[in-house]
């Protein structure tokens, strides 16, 4: 990916819009909110979003109370989403999953999620969800699909947002569990289900374990992606690419530990769906402003990096905020943000004719926004 940097580096903190405006706007032109408006209005594709991680704390608390799920004692709603590492996060994530029981629950959380996506400038969303976590509480797969697809329909009617679905297999359930998962997905497969993913704890579950499942899914016409290299080693990224044959890897940050692998992935144009905010909790890179942050290094190495939210409600972020963070911390110009946004759309599992038409439309729209929202000096 050929990314143009705006130069310089700033720290995180308050007043992001003001700092961004100072960087990109001449002092006598535009408003301090111009870049914030640009980032929000720029059309974007959200390819790495977990439905359950997008449930707001207030909705979580309400559904938990209604469905008899006990929450941590003494914690106010505002503090439900607090954790220091990936394992702590997954414990809370499982509680959120346990709170979503009915088709109406699924429809509600899906619509609320897509509404926030639309308000953050997303036009197209590929959404992961975790069937196993709901099956464990007696929720039928058909109930999940009915509710989620109703939420998709409502969001499209209200916001024009197009959404697709990626059921994800939890790696700790192993190969046998993965085979049952794929059987379930193939047995009830509406058009909105476009692929499968693999997530949860990756370290004890190397990618080659799931090669047979990936082969079956691909033979059935499903796309496949894999969470790898978030807290697992660079070899898991390599195995995702070379053993599983994937062209898209979720996270992938530890690719930077292996220069030969970086070159290999660059040559093959492997897509990395990166999520800046969650790296601050789930990875060893806890400072976005640091020059050695993995996403910054991936971009500078020319890898095909796309930007997404992961679990936006559970980490207090939105898609437009993620773009603003990389602009601020990595010194990316508006044209660089455009490149990333279009790379996200190019990586989407869409019909190629539709995709190319959208790319042309989005490119022209972003150029108009740059001209009107960010009147840069000639």
Automatic annotation (TrEMBL):
It comes from Kumtagia ephedrae. GO terms for molecular function: adenine deaminase activity; metal ion binding. Its cofactor is Zn(2+). GO terms for biological process: adenine catabolic process; hypoxanthine salvage. The keyword S-adenosyl-L-methionine does not apply. Residues 43-357 form the Adenosine deaminase domain. This is Adenosine deaminase. The gene is add. Pfam families: A_deaminase (PF00962). Keywords: Hydrolase, Metal-binding, Zinc. Belongs to the metallo-dependent hydrolases superfamily. Adenosine and AMP deaminases family. GO terms for cellular component: cytosol. InterPro entries: A_deaminase_dom, Ado/ade_deaminase, Metal_Hydrolase.
